[in-house]
Design a protein that fits this description.
11 strands; binds flavin-adenine dinucleotide; single chain
């Protein structure tokens, strides 16, 4: 069996000690009441739900999966009741505006809530995760009527939100999509087309679905500049706002997938379904990006969530399973062999998992604080800088959270040997479940292209320069701290490598059209490892100052950080070298030779 206890201590350490979240948030208009105690209370309450209700449904949900009969989708046993509890607890509307029934809490808290929900049950967490993105998109671009009619029920969680982008011939390249929207003459549109791979497109847990659908108007220009966004409910609303007549949208079939079997993935048919334009015509992609950016960071957190569960499960197994003797002599002479945790290779896997997961969590919290600042800070310059940081870190968090999360989950399976591969222990489910996170919400290759092709270029490198200032501030605040040399020096090496790689990339791209594409994944990895190194410097600075407290947590933190600095961060050297090999090793082979 896998095991999972919400890492509340580590979450509090990152929130309060490293990121000083309460002080940062409580000066933002609307968040005056946000204190450390309040945040702790929210996290503790959610932890009970995750450990007591959602985690026990994880393996059974995987075994049973979702089923469809006559277009009606049934979620696995226990999901409906668990979802009702989730709604009852107000978890769907944690960050939504109180105007629509939400609790108006910061995104930073929601990020940690989503991590623990994902760790407990990745499939379950995707349902409310999608609704939250729908809420953001409607709040940003919906008309007053759309907000009034749909937001309260989405915020309460009584209705499900979805994102309907993908078509069979239009995945990464949404400019190819063909779904049509024709004006009905009464302000509504008839939406016709088939969307595939739609998460939560149809199920039995909510009374209505609110689909946000990308489609083309009759006069739409070709490509991504001709895409509009429509709101298409499953049930049209009666005059009193309750769900009424069934709309012409239906689930044709559901996918049989490698993992996340309790999260339904639907083929959705829109047969002249009644919909309403959200935002201006032909600007739907920009509108949808409000949802996509939220979901990209959410999906990064999904990767981290699986790494955490895998780590905890592998660590428990490694202390229990006895095989072989320690190289330094028997550690448990009373037993026939020592627990496998004595072996350096097992420790390597566990420390890799833990050191990366803890740094990713810190990055997730820091990045979401930037989200909150970018939404609420009274000073426009501060908001712009925070927004820049969010823009820069979104592809990094999404791609590294999910790539490293997948790698860690796989490596933790190895700790269980053959027992990891068979179904009984649940580790193989984690590996299957996490795999999609590197693919959906824009594959990680697309994230890397977003970083090198778009984010680095904005404002002549303003985002990267803004982040360098953040790093400089950290280093300036640690000046003279000789006790941190083992963290600061390797981090400075990685920073120098990243800065030089950024210059190299721009120069290479000036003469080679394939340079960015060839370098993108390695550049993103180099950037991500360096950012994680930055997080470790910040965590080590706090932990070092607290080791005298007598709490062993801080010494353990430093040990884990030392592992990262000596065995993970140096990988930047190899990644950098691979990146600098340029595009010719990739492009030299003719297509026919493959
Ligand atoms: C379980 C599941 C749930 C999903 N949920 C949703 C949902 O709720 N809503 C929704 O709209 N979609 C959803 N999707 C779709 C998902 O977002 C897409 O699968 C994803 O964006 C990739 O598109 P594709 O599968 O068509 O792959 P393709 O776009 O065909 O890509 C194939 C490969 O080519 C690479 N590639 C493509 N273009 C480029 C390029 N320009 N440069 C370099 N490499 C490139 C990709 O990285 C990938 O490796 C879901 C998919 C799955 C499997």
């Amino acid at each position: 069996m896998t095991t999972y206890t919400v890492p509340l201590r580590d979450m509090r350490f990152v929130l309060h000690d490293v990121c000083n979240a309460a002080d940062t948030l409580s000066v933002l208009p609307g968040y005056e009441e946000v204190s450390a105690d309040l945040m702790d209370a929210v996290l503790e309450e959610c932890a009970k739900l995750c450990e007591g209700v959602l985690f026990p449904l994880n393996q059974t949900g995987d075994k049973e999966g979702c089923t469809i009969k006559d277009g009606v989708v049934t979620t696995p046993k226990g999901f409906k009741e668990a979802y009702a509890q989730y709604v009852e607890g107000g978890w769907c509307g944690l960050t939504a505006s109180p105007e629509y029934g939400g609790q108006g809490l910061p995104e930073t808290i929601d990020y940690l809530v989503a991590e623990m929900v994902g760790s407990a049950n990745l499939s379950f967490g995707l349902y409310p995760g999608l609704t939250q993105g729908t809420i953001l998109a409607l709040a940003a671009h919906g008309s007053d009527d759309q907000k009034k009619n749909y937001l309260p029920k989405l915020v309460s969680g009584e209705w499900q939100g979805t994102m309907c982008l993908t078509e069979s011939h239009a995945g990464s390249d949404l400019g190819l999509l063909r779904t049509k929207a024709v004006p009905n003459g009464d302000g509504s549109y008839a939406v016709t087309g088939t969307k595939i791979f739609i998460s939560a497109g149809e199920h039995d847990m909510t009374a209505n679905h609110v689909h946000l659908v990308l489609a083309r108007l009759p006069d739409a220009p070709e490509g991504s500049r001709g895409i509009s966004m429509f709101l298409v409910p499953k049930f049209l609303l009666n005059a009193d706002g309750t769900p009424g007549k069934r709309n012409a949208v239906s689930c044709g079939s559901i996918e049989h997938k490698m993992g996340m079997k309790a999260s339904v993935t639907c083929v959705m048919n829109f047969d002249g379904a009644t919909g309403w334009l959200v935002g201006p015509p032909h600007k739907g992609l920009a509108g949808m990006f409000v949802m996509m950016n939220k979901e990209r960071m959410f999906v990064g957190g999904q990767g981290i969530s699986q790494a955490e569960t895998a780590y905890q499960s592998a660590a428990a197994y490694a202390k229990d399973r006895i095989q072989g003797r320690a190289a330094s002599g028997p550690q448990r002479p009373d037993k026939a062999a020592d627990p496998i945790i004595v072996h350096p290779d097992i420790r390597n896997k566990l420390l890799y998992a833990r050191s990366v997961t803890e740094a990713l969590r810190a990055l997730g919290v820091w990045a979401h604080l930037q989200v909150d600042i970018s939404h609420k800070h009274p000073d426009a310059n501060v908001r712009e800088h925070a927004d820049d940081m969010v823009g820069l870190m979104t592809p990094i968090l999404k791609a590294s959270g999910t790539d490293l999360g997948s790698d860690i989950t796989n490596s933790c399976l190895q700790v269980l040997g053959g027992h990891g591969y068979i179904g009984e222990h649940g580790m193989e489910q984690l590996v299957r479940d996490v795999r999609i996170t590197a693919i959906y919400e824009g594959t990680n290759a697309i994230q890397a292209l977003d970083l090198v092709g778009r984010k680095l270029g904005i404002g002549g490198g303003r985002l990267f320069a803004g982040w360098l200032k953040e790093v400089d501030q950290t280093l300036a605040s640690l000046k003279g701290r000789n006790d941190l040399r083992e963290f600061v020096l390797p981090f400075q090496d990685a920073m120098a490598r990243l800065s030089a790689a950024t210059v190299w990339l721009n120069e290479a791209a000036a003469t080679d059209p394939n340079a960015r594409g060839a370098a993108a994944n390695e550049y993103l990895r180099l950037f991500a490892l360096t950012v994680l190194g930055w997080m470790w410097v910040r965590m080590a600075a706090v932990a070092t100052a607290k080791t005298d407290s007598g709490d062993p947590y801080y010494e353990t933190k430093l040990q884990v950080g030392r592992y990262f600095m000596s065995r993970v961060l140096p990988q930047t050297g190899a990644v950098d070298a691979v990146m600098r090999s340029g595009s010719s090793p990739l492009m030299a082979l003719s297509e026919a030779a493959f």
